Amino acid sequence: MAEAAAALGQFDFAGDDHVVPFQVEGLDVRGRAVQLGPMLDAILERHHYPAPVARLLAEVVVLTVLLGTSLKFDGKFTVQTKGDGPVDLLVADFSTPENVRAYARFDQALLNKAIESGETEPEQLLGKGVLAFTIDQGKFSQPYQGIVPLDGTTLEDIAGVYFRQSEQIPTRVRLAAAELFDRDDAGKPRHRWRAGGLVAQFLPEAPERMRQPDLHGGDGDTGSRPHGEDDAWLEARSLVETIDADELTDPLVGTERLLFRLFHERGVRVYEPRAVFDRCSCSRDKIQGVLKGFSAEEIEASQENGEIAVTCEFCSTTYRFEPAELQPAE
Predict the structure, then answer these.
(1) Which NCBIfam families does the record cross-reference, listed alphabetically (predicted)?
(2) Rounded to an integer, what distance in angstroms lies between the CA atom of residue 146 and that of residue 162?
C-alpha cells in the first residue's frame, strides 16, 4: 500500500521520537525530519555523559535515525566515528523497523583539557579520523560501507560528502542538539536532552537535472558558484540553510510546523510518521553464545568471584554467568 500524504493541519502532529517523511513537489525535493525527546534523553542519561559528549552523540543519533528510516529492507544502519580527539569513538545504529541504540567513548583527561580551553565544537572533539556508514542486510549479503574523512568540518558537511560520493544525490543535512531546563509536574527542576534534524534530497524525474559540481579539489573545481546545479535545488538548499538550530529542537515548533515554515509556498506534503525507540539488540543468549567460543583459559581469566559479568556498552545491562553455563554440551 502506498503511503498516504496529507497537508498540514489534516491530522495530529507527530510529536517527539517520530520521523516525518516529506515531499516538496514544486522543488522536486524529498526528505525526512525529526525531533527526538524522551528516546534520546534515555540514551544519554543512562551513561551520564558530560554535556559536550552528549551533544555530539545526540547529533550522531539524529543522523542515524534520519538515514536508517529510509531503508527499504530489513537490516541495520550504523554510523560510527573513529578519531584522535578527546571523543575517539561514537557509534549509533538503527535496526529496522524502529530500534535505536548509541554509545560514546572518550578520554576524560583530554576532554577536561578541551573544555578548559574552550575547544568543544564537534570537529574539535572528534579530531582527525573517519566517519563510516554501514548498511547490513543480514547473513545473506555482504555489508556495504561508505567511509569519509573527519577533516575538521561539521557532521552536517561530512554527511553531505558521503551522499555525493556514494549516491550522487544532491543532499543537505541539518542537525542540532540542546539541553532543556524546566520543571516537572511537581515543580521540581528537571534537565532533559533534545535534538532534531532534517535531510533534504533533490530527486527530479529527469536524472540529468541532478548533476552536481565536483568535490572540492577535484579536476572540475573552479572555486566559484556551483556550475550546473538546478535552480530548484539551489532554492531548496537555500531554504534548508535558513533553519536555526533552535527551530530543530524547540518542542513548541514541531516537525510539521518547521516544514511548513520552510516550504509552504512550494506545496510541502508530509507522510505518515515513523516512531523510533530506545531498544538495544543485546540479549543473554547472544552474549552466552559469544562466551561459549572462549577457550577454557579465557573463561578462567574472565571470572571474578566465581562468575563472569558482561555489561553491554550500549544499554548498560549486565549479564552474569556461572562458568558451568559456558561449557559445551556433551
Answers:
(1) PRK01402.1
(2) 7
Contacts by 226-231 with C-beta closer than 8 Å and gap 24+?
A: 229/170, 230/28, 230/170, 230/202, 230/204
Q: DSSP 3-state assignment of 22?
A: strand
What mean pLDDT is predicted for residues 312-324? 90
Task: Note the pLDDT tens digit of each residue in 74-90.
Answer: 999 999 999 999 999 99
Beta strand spans in the chain (E): 5-6, 18-24, 29-36, 76-83, 89-95, 99-105, 129-136, 144-150, 171-183, 189-202, 268-271, 274-275, 277-278, 308-311, 318-321
Q: Which residues pair with 20 in a beta bridge?
A: 33
Q: What single-letter amino acid sits at 49?
A: Y
3-class DSSP state for residue 119? coil
CA distance 48 to 191: 12
Q: What is the pTM of this model?
A: 0.86
Nearest to 268 by CA among 33, 6, 10: 6
* Model confidence pLDDT, tens digit, residues 152-179: 888 999 998 888 888 788 999 999 999 9
Rounded Cα gap, residues 247 and 244, in angstroms: 5
Cell numbers linked to 283: 540479549
